[in-house]
Specification:
heterodimer; A: about 325 residues; mainly alpha; MetI-like fold; 15 helices; about 0% strand; B: about 280 residues; 14 helices; about 80% helix
């Protein structure tokens, strides 16, 4: 089927009437058809492909190439060093810690935001007054720029002058001397709390949309059988929105691996590298120290980790969903 | 039965309590910023969580009379508009044959865009910086930021648009074809107008993403070419002692995104859901 005018699908009764006339026309135009179609496809697809090739694919390969050279950013790339940059990156405690921080965020997001988001979605799925407004409000943090949310939270978390410290100490909770962001043991957890504030709304919203797709009859039938509210949710609603949950987990994983903006604003990776992520590591290596080879190697490691996780998750978990669709 | 259904469906006091707590936690920081902008630094130091007393307008007035603020807003707007226009136009053009033509390379081509979803922008950022500033000499320009951003917005645009274009009724195209219209003409005059709702959705997503972007502008833009997020971040480090000023600046910078969001809420939400389901 390569003609310009794709014949109407056999199942399409409305189009069947016109098929005879259509076929006559097409044969008349058919000679140049195939070439013409190729030209049209090319015309349509070229801008997007040029953009992708120039600004996505080429830079990614370029990062990979960079990772095999010692290069300070000037002159031609000639100092080939093989895998030395990789060995240096993997031996660098700051980088391995950064990888660990990314994974802490990945798993903390799933362990904390998933149950919290699901619980809120289940609660808000009831017919309560002001539900529309509530949904809007919950989504507000997600729409704000990470930088803007970060700057406000940075003010809230200031040691001595910040609101949170005043509030916590007024109810008797001790506050660390250097503030939450300034204490190495607490900084990453604090960043995670802010990220949860920013991104929980997305989870709630997606889960709510999924729950709205669960037919009311199912709830009613289960109720007639004497199931409790919780039983209905656990046995019917949650399993039915499982595909949405699995996709959210996937998005959350990818996002957590790329984490940059919020960390850069809140802590800049400090204190004492307690909150560095792979992205902040490669940015500070690349732009602040001009260690482009090291930055390239860190990029490749970030890409490989993300890719491996995406493939593994697709293979182990999401495949069920796509198979069910087919 | 009716009574039981209400007992299930309606929220009791507990649900309202949770809802209230969620609203407080969600809006707390935003309100703190907005109200803090109406206070003086002395007020903030005395009682960080208090209400403005008296209300001070000078912080907001200072931001609004600050030429740099308007310059940042202009830059953010221009970059977001270019990003959106390029991403939506190139995206719908690419999605059209992927949805409406049948050819051998169709699925592999679509896979290029799907895989693009998985590329973290951070991976490519350093070479992108070198490419834009040295090879293309577009460093510190609107286009230098907008074009890469459009490229990174393409995967999600194409992935959302393709199923939408696939679902458009074939009859219209066929009728037009019988009347002698070309494929390109059909694209412009039939497919494009019919897919407006989906185009608005991907457009809003691209716009908001660009408006909020930080990493790429951080590397590529300096001085008076900076965007609002860069301006907010720099203002907050530069005038860290002036908390009230920082809060006013931040609050005003929030407003455009919030207005756009409130106006386009349905579209953003349905777009995100489409991306998740697709």
């Amino acid at each position: 089927m390569t003609r310009v005018t794709a014949a109407p699908a056999a199942t399409d009764p409305g189009a069947a009437v016109t098929r005879g006339a259509d076929a006559r026309r097409v044969t008349g135009r058919r000679r140049g058809g195939k070439r013409r179609q190729r030209l049209e496809i090319l015309l349509f697809v070229t801008p997007a492909l040029v953009l992708m090739a120039t600004f996505v694919i080429y830079p990614v390969f370029s990062a990979a190439r960079m990772s095999f050279y010692r290069w300070k950013g000037f002159g031609p790339m000639v100092d080939f060093v093989g895998l030395e940059n990789y060995l240096r990156v993997l031996a660098d405690d700051v980088f391995t810690d950064a990888v660990m921080h990314n994974f802490v965020i990945v798993f903390a997001s799933i362990l904390v935001q998933l149950p919290l988001g699901l619980a809120l979605a289940l609660l808000l799925n009831r017919r309560i007054r002001g539900r529309g407004l509530l949904r809007t409000i919950i989504f507000v943090p997600y729409v704000l720029a990470e930088v803007i949310a970060g700057v406000v939270w940075f003010q809230l978390l200031q040691p001595r002058t910040g609101v949170l410290e005043r509030m916590l100490s007024s109810v008797g909770i001790p506050v660390p001397e250097q503030g939450f962001l300034g204490t190495p043991d607490l900084a990453l957890a604090t960043v995670f709390v802010v990220l949860t504030w920013k991104y929980l709304g997305l989870a709630v919203l997606l889960f709510l949309a999924g729950l709205q797709g669960v037919p009311d009859e199912l709830h009613e039938a289960a109720q007639l059988d004497g199931a409790s509210w919780w039983q209905v949710q656990r046995r019917i609603a949650i399993p039915l929105i499982a595909p949405t949950i699995r996709t959210w987990i996937f998005l959350s994983m990818i996002g957590s691996l790329q984490l940059f903006d919020m960390v850069w604003i809140l802590t800049g990776g400090g204190p004492a590298n307690a909150t560095t992520t792979m992205a902040t590591y490669l940015i500070s290596m690349g732009t602040q120290r001009s260690n482009y080879g090291i930055a390239g190697a860190a990029s490749v490691v970030l890409f490989l980790i993300g890719f491996a996780m995406a493939v593994a998750y697709q293979f182990l978990v999401l495949r069920r969903d796509t198979r069910a669709d087919a | 039965m009716a009574r039981r259904a209400t007992a299930y469906g309606r929220g009791g006091p507990f649900v309202y309590l949770v809802a209230l707590a969620v609203v407080a936690v969600t809006l707390g920081p935003v309100l703190y910023g907005a109200l803090g902008g109406f206070r003086t630094n002395a007020q903030l130091a005395r009682d960080p969580a208090g209400l403005p007393d008296p209300w001070v307008l000078s912080n907001y007035a200072n931001v609004l009379s600050n030429a740099a603020f308007w310059r940042y807003t202009l830059n953010s707007t221009a970059i977001a508009v270019v990003t959106t226009a390029v991403a939506v136009l190139a995206g719908v053009m690419a999605a059209y044959p992927l949805a409406r033509y049948r050819f051998k390379l169709r699925e592999p081509l679509f896979l290029v865009f799907v895989l693009g979803l998985l590329f973290p922008a951070a991976v490519a950022i350093i070479p992108l910086f070198i490419l834009v500033t040295r090879n293309l000499e577009l460093g510190n320009t609107w286009w230098g930021v907008a074009l890469p951003q459009a490229a990174f917005a393409l995967p999600v645009t194409v992935v959302i648009l393709r199923p939408f274009l696939m679902a458009l009724p074939k009859e219209l195209e066929e009728a037009a074809m019988l009347d002698g219209a070309t494929r390109v003409g059909i694209f412009w005059r039939i497919a494009l107008p019919l897919s407006m709702p989906a185009l608005v959705t991907v457009g809003v997503l691209a716009f908001v993403t660009s408006w909020n972007a930080y990493l790429l502008p951080l590397l590529l833009l300096q001085g008076e070419m900076r965007t609002l997020p860069l301006g907010v971040a720099d203002f907050s480090t530069q005038y860290s002692a002036d908390t009230a000023g920082v809060l006013a600046f931040t609050t005003i910078a929030m407003i455009p995104a919030l207005i756009l969001f409130l106006a386009m809420q349905r579209r953003i939400v349905s777009g995100l859901q489409g991306a998740v389901k697709g």
